[in-house]
Amino acid sequence: MAVKIRLQRHGKKGKPFYWIVAADARSKRDGKYLEKIGTYDPNTSPATIDLNFDSAISWLGKGAQPTNTAKAILSYSGVLLKKHLDGGVKKGAFTEAEAKKRFDKWMKEKSAKIQKKIEDVNASLESNKKEAREREEEYRKKKLEESKAKEEAKADEAPADEAPADEAPADEAPADEAPADEAPADEAPAPADEAPADEAPADEAPADEAPAEEAPADEAPADEAPADEAPADEAPADEAPADEAPADEALLMKLLLMRLLLMRLLLMRLLLMRLLLMRLLLMRLLLMRLLLMRLLLMRLLLMRINNKFYGYKSC
After folding, report:
1. DSSP letter (8 states) at residue 214
2. Residue 292 to residue 303: CA distance in whole angstroms
3. Considering 79, 152, 169, 266, which has the largest number of Cβ atoms within 10 A of its Cβ?
4. Angstrom distance (rounded) from CA 61 to CA 55
């Protein structure tokens, strides 16, 4: 019976936990086993290995073959080195004390490496935690500064909105005082207008002659008539769009004609394609008909041959 040292899976989904077992090679992975040698937990950093040295060396000595993963675990734990040293002792290469000395030295170096790795992992975890805390503090400070800036901006905007409301009555005050300033202006000319009231009859005579001199002023509209005729000279400028309209219509007609020609060409192309398809279908039907005729002829020939053969046989 072939024995293998392999891993047997336990644990829950996403967090596996393995047993190192010696089992029959024909049994299932998680089936029956002969002996449990140890455990392997890959969820920790570094991975945790708990192994029974004597049982592992015993099964290796009996010829059990470890799988690739189990072999790596045994090598990491020093089981393979122990087996190798025991073989050297049996062959007489060195004494048992020398073998024990070499194994102890290797175990010390290995444990030092493992300890260093654990310290590095712990240091990296601490540094990551520290960086996370610093980032969190920076984020909090930034949020506080932003909130303070928003509050200050609101506080600055509030007085600015109240200031125009306070100044509005001050601007309206002069408007109320304006009538008081205008009142003396209306009363001031009154004495001046009353003084020449007695002299008015002396000046009335020339006032009657003024309409005679103003007559030419009434004739001025006659001289201004040519100014009203200026729009008549500008009429050709307004007729320019009328000349452009036929050009636009000509372009539209050309575009319509081009479109009609394109549509006609497309229709012709479609008709030609339809004719070609019809011809292809007819050719296909003819070929099918010829094939059927050929099959019928072949069948008739075979029937004649069979009739002749059976006829000669019956005779």
Report:
1. T
2. 16
3. 79
4. 10
Helices vs. strands in the chain: H and E counts, helices first: 11, 5
Can you tell me the distance from the alpha carbon of 92 to that of 141, in angstroms, rounded to the nearest whole number? 73
What are the Cα distances from residue 140, in Å, to 143, 144, 310?
A: 5, 6, 108
For the beta carbon of residue 30, count every other beta carbon within 10 angstroms.
13
d(CA 250, CA 245): 9
Reading the block at residue 290, the tokens are 């010829």
Q: Nearest to residue 6, comparing CAs of 20, 26, 16, 18? A: 20
Residue with tokens 């008549």: 232
Sheet strand arrangement including 3-12: 48-51, 35-41, 15-24, 3-12, 65-66
> How far apart, in whole angstroms, are the C-alpha atoms of residue 270 and residue 290?
30
Burial per residue of 268-283, b for 16 or more beta-carbon CB atoms within 10 angstroms, e otherwise: eeeeeeeeeeeeeeee
pLDDT tens for the chain, residues 1 to 315: 789 999 999 999 989 999 999 999 888 888 899 999 999 999 988 888 999 988 999 999 889 999 999 999 999 989 999 889 988 888 888 888 888 899 899 989 988 888 888 888 888 888 888 899 889 999 999 989 988 888 888 888 876 666 555 554 444 444 444 343 444 334 434 433 443 334 433 344 333 443 334 433 344 333 443 334 443 444 444 444 555 667 888 888 999 999 999 999 999 999 999 999 999 999 999 999 999 999 999 999 998 888 876 654 444
Neighbours of 58 (CB within 10 A): 14
**Plot region of 78 (φ>0 → left; ψ -120 to 50 → alpha; else → beta):** left
207: left (phi over 0), alpha (psi -120 to 50) or beta: alpha
Q: How far apart are the two ends of the chain, measured CA to CA in Å?
A: 77
DSSP code at position 50: E
In this structure, what DSSP letter does residue 75 have? H
Two structure tokens written together for 179: 């009538």
